[in-house]
Fold these 2 entries.
Entry 1:
Amino acid sequence: MTDTDEPSSGASAISVSRDRVVRFHYQIFDEAGAAVESTRDGEPLAILHGRGNVMRGIEDALESRKAGDRFEVTLPPEQAYGPRKDDFTQRISKKYFRQPARLKPGMTTQLSTEEGTRSVTVLKVGGKVVDVDMNHPLAGQTLKFDLEVMEVREATREEIAHRHVHGPGGHHH
Ligand code: ZN
């Protein structure tokens, strides 16, 4: 017991809130229970909290958590990768793909768009164009996230100005 209002052990006591940095591991499970994405084999992801750097539902779930907290959150499609749209196909020039020669029907690949990269599914490969399903491969699915908070710290002034984290799990520049 202590008679002061000072936190006893600095950094370990702070919880996730807006403009703090949170580093966390996540694993995503699809509706069939298959692990589709994970940080467990490498660095945890680091985000500047409350700035839309991850899905809103994940930010909400992280709010007020502390280092060491491990929990699950289930997000419906609307809060994850959106509903699956029918006939959401587009014919796209091969130049927008990183490795067009390797494209095959059925595979998932990254497409560079004005809003950043997005995951799409290849339907048909032509000589100069590719037909893709623009739905995210996980669209229409309720996803389960296993989250573990590894660290919570104050952001630097520079990180807040840039609206992203610098260093491990964040931006390097
Ligand atoms: Zn920066």
Entry 2:
Amino acid sequence: MTGPATDARGAAVRIIRELGRAGHTAYLAGGCVRDAQLGVEPKDYDVATEARPEVVRSVFKRSQYVGEAFGVVLVYINGHAIEVATFRSEWGYEDGRRPSGVEFTDAQHDAQRRDFTINGLFADPLGDDGEPNADGKDRIIDFVGGRLDLQDRVLRAIGKPDERFAEDYLRMLRAARFAARLGFTIDPETAEAIRVSAKHLGKISRERIGQEVMLMLTGPMPALAAGLIQSLELDGTTFNEDHDDVALPTLGALPAGSSYALSLAAWMLDRHGASGSLDAAAVFADEQAWPVLRGWRKALCLSNDDRAGLADALSLLKRAHGWSALGVAKRKRLLARPGWAGALALIRAVEPDGLFQVIEAQAQPLIAQGVEPKPWVTGDDLIGMGLKPGPGIGRLLDRVYDAQLDGRVSSRDEALAWAKGRL
Ligand code: ATP
Ligand code: MG
């Protein structure tokens, strides 16, 4: 599974060559063909073949079934694990609508069961002699018009869009994801079918919905993807909220590569009328965020970490809103919080002038002093002074640490004396 992607391609081509020698048609399939045609490095390489799974297993000793019902075999070769799927006439839908058995078929029918034309291409890397083409050029096999759509930069469902979405409503979110990531337009008929079927998205499991949203918000164009979700009217069922195609200034202003939790926080502010001013965002975080957060957690099946990250970003934003009233110790404690860098990015996205600038300027010298110095006084010190173990120790430790952060004491000896005076 390691090594540069070009090696992964080499491994996939070797599999195709071996299968060819054993008399079976096999091609590169799906996303890797699309990406290579676009000049993008594919994430992984999938192989599709006419050979039955048991034949694939017998050709490659180092292999295992991963989706036996769907005819998928994982082949280990040259340190890579490559999925080899037998041409099939059904795709694997989840949520209780999984076809009970899978019918194996030919390349054309396999292509026609895929979701979008640009995902329905095959590539044959071998020449007539069964060896890889010397120039490394593949022969593209296109049963669905994918090549033209790649040229025109159009995302289009294969076959009748409404029927294809009814087979697996998740494809509606996948449409938004691919269109955003590639910067493609969605063919009008496909887009219209999504709007008409959008209300059915809730029939898909929340895990799958959340997974797609996560891929979109951590992908290269999060605000574009979110905008598409809204304009395709998928937002209502995605969040279990009313449809609302709001502007996305906060999400759009977050730095590239922001975390899923932070992107969700930004989108939440935009969707709930709390963007544009830090005052509005802080009021939302203080008074309205928690029920919304609970709803999103359920709707997107958020992990504990993502939920906590989202809650943290909002509560840090709220705290930072009161920055001017905080003393030095409280400011330092805030600057030392693990989610602070993200929260500051969020604050800047909400309102780049104003308080963000103030915080940035005033935080500099505090950070230079160190916002999280080692405490001069420890619990053992206080016990050594005769204090009984208990909550009183914690409180006093907090106060003496505040004095240290504030600069009211400037050495361990001063800190010990300060504590002694307050026993
Ligand atoms: P990525 O680079 O994001 O992995 P991909 O195109 O490889 O993109 P996958 O989800 O890995 O997408 O799926 C591989 C291929 O399987 C797709 O290109 C498509 O042909 C097909 N496919 C995947 N999911 C579905 C689905 N729900 N319905 C129909 N075809 C699908
Ligand atoms: Mg893939």
